[in-house]
Design a protein that fits this description.
Elements: H1 3-21, H2 26-42, H3 52-65, H4 68-85, H5 110-119, H6 123-135, E1 142-145, E2 150-156, E3 160-165, H7 168-181, H8 207-220, H9 228-241, H10 246-253, H11 258-262, H12 269-284
Antiparallel strand pairs: 1-2, 2-3
Helix pairs in contact: 1-2, 1-4, 2-4, 5-6, 6-7, 6-9
Family: Belongs to the 'phage' integrase family.
InterPro entries: CB, DNA_brk_join_enz, Integrase-like_cat_sf, Integrase_catalytic, Integrase_recombinase_N, Integrase_SAM-like_N, Tyrosine_recombinase_XerCD
Keywords: DNA integration, DNA recombination, DNA-binding
Amino acid sequence: MTSSETEFKQNYQTHLKHLKLKGLQPKTIESYSRAMRRIGAYFNEQVNDLSESQLTDYFSDLLESHSWSSVKLDLYGLKFFYTYVLNKPWTELKLIKPPRTQRLPDIVTVEEAGRLFAMTHTLSYRVFFFTLYSLGLRLTVADIDATRQRVHIRDAKGNKDRLVPLPTTTLVCLRRFWQVHRNPVLLFPNRHGGLKSAHLSTTPLDRGGVQATLRQIAQDCGIKKITPHSLRHSYATHLIEAGVDLLEVQTILGHHSILTTARYTHLTDTTNHKADQLINALMNGFAMDWRRVK
């Protein structure tokens, strides 16, 4: 092992420690650490004095195979590395400017959601997908308060806790599912040893397995490509269609800004139908007299 490789490995471990000490979310820690693994591999572990020209080459090549989101995350990861590991001043790169876009999230209809649940024949995945949808959760740790019919979401985005309503149907479903696996700690234990060993599991349901299973079931149902997060988006949209106040939906989803929640009004058939009715009612109030025109 060369001296540069040894130094990089040591600095990478320091990078991981600082990421944890700064209280960043696990997803952010993984993104920033993956960034340094990728950058280290690209420059043969010699990353301590990268020039603007070298970074231009790296990010240009990265954009050929990855999204702008990956480019931004690698940039932020490298900035963190320079700031907290190398203790070097960071000059903001002017060469990276992702296009400003605002895409509407992918959702499924209520009928499609029902088909997804029905077509999921593996019990743990079926219950997980239904819970994910009926609570609007991200993949996070949650505590069930059956008495108050609330779910305590801990360490959500922004390191904030929040309470969300727990539908009776979901509570019954979770209780029946627990009777099957009886794990004393985990709500959704992993499937490595099957249901018979689930009560001994110490790790939760595998994220990759959840994503791959949902992708395959959606394909089998003839539904467009969706992710577990699409179920959260669908839940928000269906709440608004059902008449739940927008501010309440904002609280349930844990959105910092009401503008984020308001995006879902563009996805609702009910909202669009009401808008059509109101617009037509407004326009019908104007009488166009065709007799006095040339």
